[in-house]
Amino acid sequence: MMSLSLIQFHVLLGLTLFCLGVVGFLSRRSGLIALMCLELMLNGINLCLVAFSKLHHSPEGASLMMFVVLVAAAEAAIGLSLLVLLYRKTASVYLDDFRGLRG
Fold it and tell me: What pairs with residue 30 in β-bridges?
């Protein structure tokens, strides 16, 4: 049996998280699940960034990971506030119901 190194395991785990996020984002219609899958994709990217940073003994990957965490926090705050406002208007969080809001 072939064993994976620690870096390979982290990259494979990050890729799996990213792929699960993409599948969930494209297959579900709920706004909350779409935001959660987007966060899952960003966490998969962060895991790969840290693994490659450790592999190359370079701090750039870790600093870029901190920037991605900052962007993810802002995205979650803005996305959730928009979903709350749209829920108050339409009483639904399904993304298909928001097509009628065109001006």
Answer: 94
Residue 97: Cβ-neighbour burial (10 angstroms; 0-12, 13-18, 19+): middle
pLDDT of residue 2: 65
Of 1, 57, 52, 48, which Cα lies nearest the Cα of 21?
48
Of 88, 41, 87, 46, which Cα lies nearest the Cα of 65?
Answer: 46
Listed by start position, the domains of the chain span: 30-93
How many residues comprise the chain?
Answer: 103
- Residue pair 68/46 in contact (Cβ under 8 Å)? The answer is yes
CB 95 within 8 A of CB 30: yes
Percent with pLDDT over 90 in the chain: 54
Q: Which pLDDT tens digit goes with each residue over 78-91?
A: 999 988 988 898 88
Query: Is the model's pLDDT at 4 over the cut of 80?
Result: no
What pTM was estimated for this model as a whole? 0.84
CA-based torsion, 39, 40, 43, 44: positive or negative: negative
